[in-house]
């Protein structure tokens, strides 16, 4: 049996004591660094890349991969505790996770995130091991037309991200799309909305925008309450999830895992969509959609599972084709080249101990993470008891260093301040920041793929409907549109009463 | 590793303390050197820089830290270095874009030929003309004929304005005298994905990106853009062999220092670079990438200066004719 | 007639952003729906945003004002100044001094922090960050920048 043989090769590599140690070091470092707000996995791996030069190739990749998913775990921790997502994926976790923390349920939120991620990681690793090669072939069927339809579907569905006015959510998405277009237009090379500033001639930095609209704006919102001694966070009632919490997380975790695994394979940034998509699905099928945005367990469990599953399966195009799907994977490819391994379709055949070693180490790493993080939950929760006057200067300092370390560009810091102001004003005016961030991430992808599809088809609009995959996605988008607007007619009426009452 | 870093940082502090005394060129280097790569970490240029920096560090006795300052087609990083102190502690490793951005950008924040001192050429990465695996033409001649008769159908991918694949594509179009529909991507990764996925027809890109896809049978190759065959792809004809004369393009990389850096320092750096290019590990890794280190004569300030000057003049008519600008 | 000032301001802000982005597309070639230029897609978005903004304003007419709540002006000033000051000084003063400055400025944002807390926080955060980021992670930035060089004892 080929698979068993391959897994045996893999485990013999990943269970090697040295590799095990570096796997642990990787996830530990990743977790610790992910917890520092503002520093995401990309910056961390870039910084630690030189350390891996002296290691064996599989050891170095195992460690780097560990940092990657470790940092994602850690990133969720800050998203939940202080509303600071370090990555687009944890932006969704922040919505309900942070509300849970404010209600004194930070412990359960963190534990749910850890367990959901572990389950998703296990399933996704199995998927990678069994289906890596056929899945890659399928992912390659996704051309520009399919990506456009997929992103369009994602945007339509994302209206569910808002728990306030649908109208404002739509406006925020549109504004986010516009901010996402700042910089060089890929198709024509023209500069757009850069005001002649060379530092944003490529694009606005995601980390800066996210830290601004989430992090800084949140600090400001908390400072409002300073005068009345009302502490923002309620007393912590229990650290561990109750039996009821567990019951509530099963469905969302399963669905999130499925969605995340499927979307993560797409090299064109499917992983970004996965957590947004999982959240949307949960809110749509939930019997209590009004609980979302106010600390719903499903709102933490589903996107966390999806995000972790997507993170694992996004290794597939990198490992099977040598084509990086995102900045982190690009770094991995760089690390492989420096190690003298040529990433590409032949890695699985020529370097089985590396290929399968990395895959199996992902499962081991996930196991380590859950064992590492569950005991830490108590510690993280206690962090919340630190007086806010002490906590927020630390957050601000970490954010400043973190943002700077992404591109070594001081302009990114001014961007943080600008988006902090914009984000705060918009929150004050009743607008949620999450849809803005989603639009920001998807804006360039939407336009790029639309125009690319049109270029390849020589201006023939029908490609979106004649290609079966694309057509299917558009039909789903249409269905979602109907679903979104039918119940929202009812919801809107309720909302009016609420706001007037 | 950790110890080395602490030593380096302490050294940096001490060196900073000694600033007012003026760091003497003989002692150079007394603290870590920052090598700016004007592209994202993990890309081909970053890989070249890290390999060379690692080896040069051992020779100079000080760490060379690679700092990625990406953006604006590499001009952001270049402009950072142009404005840095000319003390030899800030270097730039840039590729062919150093020459082409002088034409692609009508208003650059620095004067390409007068803002830098030269250390030397590092390597010249060959390019390959590749296509989706089921593309009809059988060889380069067939490709040129096919493209000329089907120019309304053919799509030529590239990795964005100013990218190696964009430059090579422009040169190809100007050589065969046709304007084709180009499909730009944000970087090589997505462009290669769509080529492997048969969404676009053909592309011209560096061996660093194409060799493994070629060997894995995921894409078709027509020719290399070199004078001689590429060692890692011995069965692939050169463009000249395949019937397209004067189509030699390489993505050459050079190391620069800010204008005014003392000649003793650049000489020391050149010597370290030349040594690094003979380092067996560097040679081996370069070979894996399908490229070879520059010769000792090229890895000199003069070698780089000559290359830069001639390349600007070479690309000016090509880019002007295509009418593409990045600003 | 009553006007919901919050909705008015919100819609107004969106309209203002829409106008700014629309103005930004003035110099960009629009192209056509079949051959879109760089200006086409953003202009469409700006129009959509403007319409959404107007609808938000329209719906705010004739409604009682929604509460906006107080604004922490002091916090706003110092929190937004933090990253900016870091950006202005990190190259010149170096990482250590820039960290100290941000920490000090951030503590000023809170009305409750006294001078003792400020000094304590500044010192401990600076030490912690220098150890973690400079020594631990090896960030390639100078701890002490060129602006400070003349004040250090020479060799």
From TrEMBL, chain A:
<keyword id="KW-0812">Transmembrane</keyword>
<feature type="transmembrane region" description="Helical">
    <location>
        <begin position="20"/>
        <end position="49"/>
    </location>
</feature>
<feature type="transmembrane region" description="Helical">
    <location>
        <begin position="145"/>
        <end position="163"/>
    </location>
</feature>
<feature type="transmembrane region" description="Helical">
    <location>
        <begin position="109"/>
        <end position="133"/>
    </location>
</feature>
<feature type="transmembrane region" description="Helical">
    <location>
        <begin position="169"/>
        <end position="187"/>
    </location>
</feature>
<feature type="transmembrane region" description="Helical">
    <location>
        <begin position="61"/>
        <end position="82"/>
    </location>
</feature>
<feature type="transmembrane region" description="Helical">
    <location>
        <begin position="354"/>
        <end position="374"/>
    </location>
</feature>
<keyword id="KW-0472">Membrane</keyword>
<feature type="transmembrane region" description="Helical">
    <location>
        <begin position="418"/>
        <end position="443"/>
    </location>
</feature>
<keyword id="KW-1133">Transmembrane helix</keyword>
<feature type="domain" description="DUF112">
    <location>
        <begin position="20"/>
        <end position="438"/>
    </location>
</feature>
<dbReference type="InterPro" id="IPR002823">
    <property type="entry name" value="DUF112_TM"/>
</dbReference>
<protein>
    <submittedName>
        <fullName>TctA family transporter</fullName>
    </submittedName>
</protein>
<dbReference type="Pfam" id="PF01970">
    <property type="entry name" value="TctA"/>
</dbReference>
<feature type="transmembrane region" description="Helical">
    <location>
        <begin position="321"/>
        <end position="342"/>
    </location>
</feature>
From TrEMBL, chain B:
<protein>
    <submittedName>
        <fullName>Tripartite-type tricarboxylate transporter receptor subunit TctC</fullName>
    </submittedName>
</protein>
<dbReference type="InterPro" id="IPR042100">
    <property type="entry name" value="Bug_dom1"/>
</dbReference>
<keyword id="KW-0732">Signal</keyword>
<dbReference type="Pfam" id="PF03401">
    <property type="entry name" value="TctC"/>
</dbReference>
<dbReference type="InterPro" id="IPR005064">
    <property type="entry name" value="BUG"/>
</dbReference>
<keyword id="KW-0675">Receptor</keyword>
<comment type="similarity">
    <text>Belongs to the UPF0065 (bug) family.</text>
</comment>
<feature type="signal peptide">
    <location>
        <begin position="1"/>
        <end position="25"/>
    </location>
</feature>
TrEMBL record, chain C:
<dbReference type="GO" id="GO:0006508">
    <property type="term" value="P:proteolysis"/>
</dbReference>
<dbReference type="GO" id="GO:0008233">
    <property type="term" value="F:peptidase activity"/>
</dbReference>
<keyword id="KW-0645">Protease</keyword>
<dbReference type="InterPro" id="IPR009936">
    <property type="entry name" value="DUF1468"/>
</dbReference>
<feature type="transmembrane region" description="Helical">
    <location>
        <begin position="70"/>
        <end position="88"/>
    </location>
</feature>
<protein>
    <submittedName>
        <fullName>Zn-dependent protease</fullName>
    </submittedName>
</protein>
<feature type="domain" description="DUF1468">
    <location>
        <begin position="10"/>
        <end position="140"/>
    </location>
</feature>
<feature type="transmembrane region" description="Helical">
    <location>
        <begin position="118"/>
        <end position="143"/>
    </location>
</feature>
<keyword id="KW-0812">Transmembrane</keyword>
<keyword id="KW-0378">Hydrolase</keyword>
<feature type="transmembrane region" description="Helical">
    <location>
        <begin position="40"/>
        <end position="58"/>
    </location>
</feature>
<keyword id="KW-1133">Transmembrane helix</keyword>
<keyword id="KW-0472">Membrane</keyword>
<feature type="transmembrane region" description="Helical">
    <location>
        <begin position="94"/>
        <end position="111"/>
    </location>
</feature>
<dbReference type="Pfam" id="PF07331">
    <property type="entry name" value="TctB"/>
</dbReference>
């Amino acid at each position: 049996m080929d698979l068993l043989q391959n897994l045996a090769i893999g485990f013999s590599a990943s269970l090697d004591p040295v590799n095990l140690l570096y796997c642990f070091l990787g996830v530990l470092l990743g977790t610790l660094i992910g917890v520092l707000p503002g520093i995401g996995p990309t910056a961390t791996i870039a910084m630690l890349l030189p350390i891996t030069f002296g290691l064996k190739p599989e050891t170095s990749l195992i460690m780097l991969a560990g940092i990657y998913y470790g940092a994602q775990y850690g990133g969720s921790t800050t998203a939940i505790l202080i509303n600071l997502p370090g990555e687009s994926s944890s932006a969704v976790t922040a919505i309900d996770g942070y509300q849970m923390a404010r209600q004194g349920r930070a412990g359960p939120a963190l534990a749910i995130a850890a367990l959901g991620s572990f389950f998703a990681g296990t399933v996704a690793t199995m998927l990678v091991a069994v289906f890596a090669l056929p899945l890659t072939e399928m992912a390659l069927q996704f051309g520009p037309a399919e990506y456009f339809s997929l992103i369009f579907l994602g945007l339509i569905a994302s209206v569910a991200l808002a728990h306030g006015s649908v109208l404002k959510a739509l406006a925020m998405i549109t504004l986010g799309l516009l901010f996402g277009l700042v910089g060089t237009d890929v198709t024509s090379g023209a500069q757009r909305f850069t005001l002649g500033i060379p530092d944003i001639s490529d694009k606005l930095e995601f980390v800066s925008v996210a830290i601004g609209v989430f992090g800084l704006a949140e600090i400001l919102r908390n400072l409002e309450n300073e005068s009345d001694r009302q502490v923002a966070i309620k007393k912590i009632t229990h650290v561990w999830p109750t039996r009821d919490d567990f019951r509530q997380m099963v469905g969302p975790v399963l669905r999130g895992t499925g969605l995340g695994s499927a979307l993560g394979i797409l090299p064109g940034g499917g992983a970004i969509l996965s957590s947004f998509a999982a959240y949307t699905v949960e809110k749509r099928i939930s019997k209590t959609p009004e609980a979302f945005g106010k600390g719903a367990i499903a709102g933490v469990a589903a996107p966390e599972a999806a995000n972790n599953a997507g993170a694992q399966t996004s290794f597939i195009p990198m490992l099977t084709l040598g084509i990086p799907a995102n900045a982190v994977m690009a770094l991995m490819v760089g690390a492989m080249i420096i190690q003298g391994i040529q990433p590409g379709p032949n890695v699985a055949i020529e370097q089985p101990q590396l290929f399968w070693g990395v895959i199996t180490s992902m499962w081991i790493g996930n196991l380590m993470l859950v064992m590492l993080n569950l005991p830490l939950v108590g510690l993280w929760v206690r962090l919340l008891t630190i007086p806010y006057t002490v906590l927020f200067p630390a957050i601000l300092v970490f954010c400043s260093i973190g943002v700077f370390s992404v591109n070594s560009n001081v302009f990114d810091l001014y961007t943080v301040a600008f988006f902090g102001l914009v984000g705060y004003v918009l929150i004050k005016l009743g607008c949620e920041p999450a849809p803005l961030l989603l639009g920001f991430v998807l804006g360039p992808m939407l336009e790029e793929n639309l125009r690319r599809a049109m270029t390849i088809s020589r201006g023939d609009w029908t490609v979106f409907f004649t290609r079966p995959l694309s057509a299917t996605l558009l039909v789903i988008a249409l269905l979602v549109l109907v679903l979104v607007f039918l119940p929202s007619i009812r919801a809107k009426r309720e909302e009016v009463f609420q706001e007037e009452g | 590793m950790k110890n080395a870093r602490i030593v380096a940082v302490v050294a940096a502090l001490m060196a900073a303390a000694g600033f007012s005394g003026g760091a003497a060129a003989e002692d150079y280097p007394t603290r870590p050197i920052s090598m700016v790569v004007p592209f994202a970490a993990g890309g081909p240029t970053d890989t070249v820089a890290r390999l060379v920096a690692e080896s040069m560090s051992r020779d100079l006795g000080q760490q060379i830290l690679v700092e990625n300052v990406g953006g604006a087609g590499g001009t952001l990083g270049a402009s950072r270095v142009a404005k840095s102190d000319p003390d030899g502690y800030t270097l730039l490793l840039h590729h062919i874009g150093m020459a082409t951005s002088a034409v692609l950008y009508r208003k650059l924040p620095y004067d390409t030929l007068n803002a830098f001192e030269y250390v030397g050429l590092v390597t010249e990465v060959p390019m390959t003309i590749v296509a989706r695996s089921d593309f009809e033409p059988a060889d380069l001649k067939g490709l040129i004929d096919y493209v000329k008769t089907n120019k309304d159908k053919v799509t030529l991918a590239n990795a964005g304005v100013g990218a190696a694949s964009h430059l090579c594509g422009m040169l190809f179009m100007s050589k065969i005298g046709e304007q084709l529909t180009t499909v730009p991507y944000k970087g090589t990764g997505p462009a290669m994905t769509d080529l492997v996925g048969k969404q676009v027809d053909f592309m011209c890109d560096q061996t660093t990106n194409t060799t493994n896809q070629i060997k894995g049978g995921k894409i078709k190759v027509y020719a290399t853009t070199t004078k001689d065959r590429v060692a890692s792809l011995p069965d692939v004809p050169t463009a000249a062999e395949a019937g397209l004369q004067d189509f030699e393009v390489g993505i050459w990389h050079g190391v620069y220092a800010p204008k005014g850096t003392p000649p003793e320092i650049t000489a020391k750096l050149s010597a370290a670079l030349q040594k690094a290019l003979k380092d067996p590990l560097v040679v081996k890794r370069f070979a894996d990438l399908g490229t070879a280190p520059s010769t000792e004569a090229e890895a000199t300030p003069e070698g780089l200066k000559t290359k830069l000057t001639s390349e600007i003049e070479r690309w000016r008519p090509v880019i002007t004719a295509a009418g593409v600008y990045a600003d | 007639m009553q006007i919901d000032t919050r909705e008015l301001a919100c819609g107004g802000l969106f309209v203002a952003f829409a106008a700014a982005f629309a103005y930004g597309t003035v110099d960009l070639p629009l192209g056509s729906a079949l051959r879109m230029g760089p200006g086409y897609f953003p202009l469409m978005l700006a129009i959509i945003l403007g319409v959404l903004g107007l609808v938000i304003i329209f719906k705010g007419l004739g409604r009682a004002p929604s509460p906006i709540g107080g604004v922490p002006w002091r916090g706003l000033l110092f929190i937004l100044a933090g990253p900016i000051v870091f950006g202005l000084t990190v190259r010149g003063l170096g990482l250590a001094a820039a960290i100290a400055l941000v920490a000090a400025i951030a503590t000023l944002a809170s009305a409750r922090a006294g001078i003792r807390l400020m000094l304590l926080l500044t010192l401990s955060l600076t030490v912690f960050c220098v150890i973690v980021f400079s020594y631990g992670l090896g960030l390639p930035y100078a701890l002490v920048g060129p602006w400070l060089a003349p004040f250090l004892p020479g060799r």
